[in-house]
Amino acid sequence: MAETISINPVTRIEGHTRIDIFLDDSGAVTDARFLATSFRGFEAFCLGRSFWEMPGITARICGICPTSHALASALAGDRLLGLTVPPTAVKLRRVLALAQVIQSHALSFFFLSLPDFLPGLRDDPARRTLTELARSHPDLVTNAVQLRRFAHDITSRVGGGVVHPQWIIPGGMAEPLSEKVRQEFLSQIPGLIAIATATIAQFRQMSDGLRLAGRLGSLPTLYLGLTSAEKTLEYYEGELTVMDRKGTLLMAGAVPERFPELVAEELSSWNYLKGPYYAPLGAVDGSYRVGPLARLNLVARAGTRLADAELATFREQVGAGHPVHDVFFAHHARLIEIMAALERLQELLDDPTIIDRRVRSRAEVNQSKGIGVCEAPRGTLCHEYHVDENGLLERVNLVIATVQNSPAMNRAVREIARREIRGARLTEEVAQLLQIAIRAYDPCISCATHAAGSNGLVIRLVAPDGTVVQAFPT
Amino acid sequence: MKGERTNRLRVATLWLSGCSGCHMSLLDTDEFLLKLAEAIDLVHSPLADAPKFPSGVDLVLIEGGVGTEHDLERALLARSRSRQVVSLGDCAITGNVPALRNPLDREAIIREVYGVAWQPERLPALLPAVLPLHRVIAVDLFIPGCPPEPERIRTVLTAIIRGEAPQLPQEMLSFG
Ligand code: SF4
Questions:
Q1: Among candidates A440, A187, A246, A221, which has minimal Cα distance to A330?
Q2: How far apart are CA A66 and CA A55, in angstroms?
């Protein structure tokens, strides 16, 4: 009898998800799917509201990347107003975008993924918790806390809100930055760069011993993301860049507003996630990824000194290749991005114009359509709004990073399931490997379905007649 | 370690229809996390690998309103296995942003997002409305805020760890 295996829920990821693995009559794996099982419908219930409310509302899509949503939303709003944002407001928004990267990557690396890497913790599911991590490795938790505190202090003192920033508004920023706050942040950066340097060294040591490279799904895809005009890392505005599987650029220098026309979405009947693809190549060949791995593949240089040195190491390491397709290296990519963000923050805060008082432009609604694109920690994020003459929303489309990565996550799950599952049984070890692979993508399901679910992922083995033969956890 | 009984408090956290921002605010208590680790065991949480809600839980912090059948099941289970239940944040207390869908019809929302022809298989059903947690289960304590500031969470947890009755001062009792 053919069967299905299911893992439900995948723990330590942000949201509520399940993996279904389908078996044939001989017990061989025929298919596997990573799916999101919740839904909130922001695109529907925002209709009829004013676009002015959208940075605040859409920040509540996700507590992990609220700033990214507020930024994409404000950018779309800027376009509806048809105005130019004051240069200092652009700099402050960049500061917030970089803090967002640090905060989210530190969460993903230290709190969600490290328990898989640390001997002692990784071998016992009961010990893979935050409190165990704090007891066994207080030094690592202290490092995470310092990086995250710096980032959330920026969110509250530059962005005006705990978790959800309130001062990012269409037209610019609601409040300027004070000299005192600027100096306080500047004084913290050298210490944080030292933490980032030490963490990268620790991770390199760990990753040799982990032997996870090559085991988490390494299927090549296209890459899509924003870069600066100089082909360095850029999280706010910039240019859209697309790279093929071999590392050749298919598109460069496109304005971010072209995003919706470059990406088409496929619906599936088994998932609340839509499956986007690069439209010019079609659904099969156009499968692409976004996020840290994509960004480091797309750029020529990180654009800052220490991050560039580490980027060179990243590209030369054994098994990486170029472009780097193996998702295990996304962990390394996140640490490099934390470093680059700290160095860029230093540059931005060193600039005396950052405390200029002019941070907001004003206008009436001048356009009926506005598209805002930025790089969220997990990849390219697009908000598209259509409004009536009063600025009330008539159509809302949100394209989220995790959704764009979901076809690649499915392929990774399929690849691992086919390779590792024997005799139609799911072992603790294989279930663990599948979860580690999914966590390497750092999926944020509260974003992806615009629906926060709960405690991660369920894995199920499913027979051809649809019966579930094994579920993990049982 | 497995199944070991300690004299630490058994604490769980749950994430229903919310944005995870309340959980982030808990992480934003920073160094307090290290203190917390001495006093509690996190026995079930999006931040832990224990996938089943265990029994004999001393305290569960619940983020988010009750928006799906699955949320409902989990809220009921958490209540039946926990001594104290805390509504963490405005979504759990009022429904908040996720409840903006309440005036709309469920089918209409799905049609708007996925088109008319979409026929989902085997996905957990949305409830007709997103409900505040205390409409569904008894709640012992409320920590308002969207998210509650880390200081509010710290204040409550410190009292509970000391075995005192938590009392939030007036200025910590605001929404938003
Ligand atoms: S109360 Fe606010 S921060 Fe907490 S889950 Fe709801 S929207 Fe997110």
A1: A440
A2: 9
A93 and A208 together in one domain: yes
Model pLDDT for residues A112-133, shown as the tens digit of each residue = 888 888 887 877 877 888 888 9
Q: Is residue A340 a part of any domain in this protein?
A: no
Residues of B in contact with A119 (CB under 8 A): none
Does the beta carbon of B21 lie inside 6 Å of ligand 1? yes
Nearest to B124 by CA among A446, A358, A270: A270
The domain spanning residue A76 has which CATH number? 1.10.645.10
Measure the CA–CA gap between A144 and A396, rounded to whole angstroms: 36
Top mutation candidate among B13, B15, B16, B19 for ligand 1, by most atoms within 8 Å of CB: B19
Total number of domains constituting chain A: 3
Q: Are residues A177 and A136 in the same domain?
A: yes
Are residue A275 and residue A154 in the same domain, yes or no?
no
Q: Which chain A residues are closer than 8 Å to B149 by Cβ?
A: 162
Q: In this structure, is residue A164 part of a structural domain?
A: yes
Beta bridge partner(s), residue B40? B9
Measured from the Cα of B20, ligand 1's closest atom is 5
Contact list in B for residue A18 (CB cut-off 8 A) is none
Instruction: Report the gap between the CA of A275 and the closest CA in chain B (Å).
Output: 12
Q: Above 90 in pLDDT, residue A466? A: no
Range of the domain at A158: 67-213+348-365
Q: Is A462 in the same domain as A420? A: yes
Lookup: tokens for A446: 């509260």
**pLDDT tens-digit map of A224-251:** 999 999 999 999 989 999 999 999 999 9
- List, for residues A164-207, the tens digit of each pLDDT value: 999 999 999 999 999 999 999 999 999 999 999 999 999 988 88
Q: Are residues A282 and A310 in the same domain?
A: yes
User: Which of B24, B26, B90, when mutated, tests ligand 1's pocket best, judged by the most ligand atoms within 8 Å of its CB?
Assistant: B90
CA dist A294 to A242, A440, A441, Å? 9, 13, 11
- Please tell me whether residues A71 and A148 are part of one structural domain: yes
